[in-house]
Specification:
The protein is built from 18 helices and 15 strands. The protein is an alpha/beta fold. It folds into two domains: 197 residues, 3-Layer(aba) Sandwich (Rossmann fold); 182 residues, Rossmann fold, CATH 3.40.50. It has a seven-stranded parallel sheet, sandwiched between helices. It has a six-stranded parallel sheet with strand order 12-11-8-13-14-15, sandwiched between helices. Strands 9-10 form a two-stranded antiparallel sheet. The longest helix has 23 residues. 33% of the residues are buried.
């Protein structure tokens, strides 16, 4: 039995113990990376690089979406890639979930962490990932690693985190080190704005002398479809109508997308990250807004607890497993979030954004910290459930109150999101 298979078999009890033994954890992790890295490199050196193979991964193999999907879809439409081999990597059960996805019929599937996965990483010339690659996997000199990342940062990341804290299995310094390990491997880092370019490069410890050649500030491919559909009234009506029909959402009801993020300090051993105290009061929401609105609830993929919304049938729709969050952006009449970066992407719709921060002081001072003051964000700032309800009822006045600031916000954070980012990235990565 290999070291990797032993770890996977006993992962949960190992994590439960290591969480409380930082010294042992750090030494064990270093040994694990070294041993697996040596094994990977020994294998990879004998695997010839295939100049026409591309490996894609989204959120560690949990989803088919984000910028890897946008780049992949554009490549499917480009005859220059007719002879290329496309490989999508998924975690176990996700292999079955996406087996019948029409857009993936051209692709090969590989299970994340398997021997075939490691061999594919060694063989594919191009890697297109939106999260960090495993620490023990290093690209060969003739391979191209495109780090798409998965959003514009509001919360501090990596080396920019100054609050000493610990999430499930990392101190502040440990997590920063893992960010730094990834940036050393990059060929390219995608970015939609000067703001994102600077903060992601700083957070990952990207060396100053490499930034000009590594950072591709061409927009986020993940937002191409949002822009294109929302700018086309016929396409928007058709997509929204089909979505409502699929979920059974009445045509007369407005749609509120509620997409909160996870908390670094909410980890429960044996379960994972949970979300309880910072949730909306759906009883109050339904009573006040149920005649006009429905809520699409999208939990962060880290959140492990189960949500039972049976009591809110016809009002709350759990769309946490929706393959592509862009579908939700396109159909939602308004967005409610907390500290998640989803609002940067949703801003491409030019529709109202509202913020719900029930734990603001704790999050800002004790958990992560932010890159700028939240008072700069356009839209209602709500700290209680009653304020959320009032903000939703006041949406007819949104443009008058926040329109000017919202336009400036979009110019700062989404200047390159014009619906053609994937095309520009492909030209830069594959043909320059």
């Amino acid at each position: 039995m290999s070291l990797g298979s032993i770890y996977r078999k006993f992962r949960k009890p190992i994590l439960g113990v290591m969480r409380h033994l930082p010294g042992v954890r750090q030494r064990s992790r270093a040994m694990y990376y070294r041993k697996r890295g040596e094994s990977y490199n020994a294998m990879a050196v004998d695997v010839p690089t295939d100049s026409q193979m591309v490996i894609f991964q989204c959120f560690g193999g949990r989803q088919f979406g984000c910028s890897p999907r946008a780049i992949y879809e554009r490549m499917l439409e480009d005859s220059r890639f007719d002879d290329f081999t496309f490989v999508w990597t998924f975690k176990g059960k996700k292999m079955e979930q996406f087996a019948d996805e029409p857009l993936l019929q051209r692709a090969q599937f590989v299970k994340v962490g398997s021997d075939e996965y490691l061999e594919t990483c060694a063989r594919a010339k191009y890697w297109v990932f939106n999260t960090r690659v495993a620490e023990y996997i290093t690209p060969k000199p003739d391979q191209v690693y495109v780090q798409c990342w998965h959003g514009t940062p509001l919360k501090r990341l990596g080396y920019d985190v100054t609050i000493e804290t610990q999430n499930a299995l990392n101190t502040t310094d440990e997590l920063a080190e893992r960010f730094g390990m990834d940036s050393k491997k990059w060929t390219y880092l995608l970015s939609p704005s000067a703001y994102t370019s600077q903060h992601l490069a700083d957070a990952f410890g990207l060396k100053e002398e490499r930034r000009a050649s590594v950072v591709l500030e061409e927009g986020y491919p993940r937002n191409d479809r949002i822009v294109r559909v929302c700018e086309n009234p016929e396409a928007l009506d058709a997509f929204t109508g089909a979505f409502r029909e699929e979920l059974g959402i009445p045509a007369e009801k407005k749609i509120l997308l509620y997409a909160p993020t996870w908390r670094d300090d909410s980890y429960q051993a044996g379960t994972g990250y949970v979300m309880e105290d910072t949730l909306l009061d759906f009883d109050a929401m339904q009573t006040a807004l149920g005649d006009e609105w429905v809520v699409l609830f999208r939990a962060h993929y880290y959140i492990a607890n189960h949500f039972d919304f049976n009591a809110y049938e016809g009002f709350v729709y759990d769309v946490s497993k929706q393959a592509d969050i862009n579908d939700l952006y396109i159909v939602a009449d308004a967005l409610l979030t907390d500290y998640s970066s989803v609002f940067f992407d949703y801003a491409n719709t030019a529709r109202p954004i509202m913020f719900f921060w029930p734990d603001y002081q704790h999050y800002a001072n004790d958990i992560r910290g932010f890159y700028f003051g939240l008072d700069e964000l356009p839209g209602p700032h709500c700290f209680t459930n009653d304020e959320v309800i009032a903000a939703v009822k006041d949406l007819p006045n949104y443009d008058e109150k926040y329109g000017k600031d919202y336009a400036a916000f979009r110019q700062t954070f989404c200047p390159k999101d014009d619906g053609h980012a994937a095309e520009r990235v492909i030209e830069k990565v594959f043909f320059e």
